[in-house]
Amino acid sequence: xxxxxxxxxxxxxxxxxxxxxxxxxxxxxxxxxxxxxxxxxxxxxxxxxxxxxxxxxxxxxxxxxxxxxxxxxxxxxxxxxxxxxxxxxxxxxxxxxxxxxxxxxxxxxxxxxxxxxxxxxxxxxxxxxxxxxxxxxxxxxxxxxxxxxxxxxxxxxxxxxxxxxxxxxxxxxxxxxxxxxxxxxxxxxxxxxxxxxxxxxxxxxxxxxxxxxxxxxxxxxxxxxxxxxxxxxxxxxxxxxxxxxxxxxxxxxxxxxx
Amino acid sequence: xxxxxxxxxxxxxxxxxxxxxxxxxxxxxxxxxxxxxxxxxxxxxxxxxxxxxxxxxxxxxxxxxxxxxxxxxxxxxxxxxxxxxxxxxxxxxxxxxxxxxxxxxxxxxxxxxxxxxxxxxxxxxxxxxxxxxxxxxxxxxxxxxxxxxxxxxxxxxxxxxxxxxxxxxxxxxxxxxxxxxxxxxxxxxxxxxxxxxxxxxxxxxxxxxxxxxxxxxxxxxxxxxxxxxxxxxxxxxxxxxxxxxxxxxxxxxxxxxxxxxx
Lengths: 258, 262
Description:
Chain A is 86% helix and 0% strand. By secondary structure, chain A is mostly helical. The longest helix of chain A is centred in the middle third of the chain and has 43 residues, at 84-126. The radius of gyration of chain A is 22 Å and the shape is elongated. Chain B is of the alpha/beta class. The A-B interface holds A 123, 127-129, 131-132, 134-139 and B 48, 50, 70, 74-75, 77-78, 80-82, 84-86, 88-91, 101-102, 105-106, 150-151.
């Protein structure tokens, strides 16, 4: 390979990458913009909230409960004796509210609802339903994508809040009920250590993850190759990319909030 | 009614439309014929504005489509109906809601009016009583009839059909052909049909256009096309394996290929 062709190849890759980022941002801008243009698709958004939010409650409940329980168990084990009783509640609550709640709930919802989102939109494209919307003078981005993005941003913090509560109850169950830590110590330490900003910051992160999830998953479905294989590849990519994005964004947003 | 002028479109160097000009007369059925990869579906997508041509003009009722904004294009689309190859019904909605969809999106009609209009269109396609079925419960032919009912619910002035009879049994194909003709005579709509089904096309068409590798090679009434002396046209309408389009599409020498040492 000559030097000039190496430059050419890298240049083309850069142009391709820039174009991809640009298209993705335009897609997000369009979808968000239609959220404010009447007629608003409120009913469609509510349906999506039911799908992304309400139907994820059971799996979030189970994950949160086991996370809280394991967290308390490990803490009790590692800090045997000493000041365990005083800091157990604070430790469980802070870990869950600040990090585990937003991140784990986002990862689980991505696996459950984000993948379905990509597959649904990909199949709508494959079976010409997106073109059919266009032909009926209905904007497919506004009709299909915007409600999903609205639902992602609304549902994710609510699910995260639910995760926080259930997780703390899981820690309470192990610490207080099983290991006999005094209830006043558990909750006393917690209320002293957890600030309003810890909770609000966690929920804010969760809203960012919700936006990232619905954006990436919808975009992957919308741009999927119009074959069965294309849709399956898009679904896998959507889950992988969203999961990585959640972890990277977690670091970025946390560093901004601190 | 619909007129295209010197339309060109290519994908990554592959020519799909090569300088195509033609007219689709008001109230007539025009069939665009061509083999797979002849660019007929691409032409249809350009006609309705789903794809933008690289160059050339498209006039729909004297308005030029290619330069329109999205809002203006959507206004024009309300005068168009389209039947997709796979019917493109929404999986999550039942038959009634599929047909009522454009009405709910674009009008504020009362529920009884919507019900009456849907019932009328269902009667037209002969499937009244199937309102509550889901698309997954329909056969291919029935799904296309429902798709047609949805395409005409807004009383369009032009209806576009993408391979309406492909994949259907002869009776279902006959039903679709009858519906295309009925709709044309009853509502006076301009019909544009993309197809490779020769018997159906010659039965329903007022005019036929034949595409060959993106280029228009013949245009005329079914009789004129049958009397054509163009070898490409004759091979296509008779379905012969050998002719100007050769059976063997590989360029390499067979002997060299088979004796090649890896």
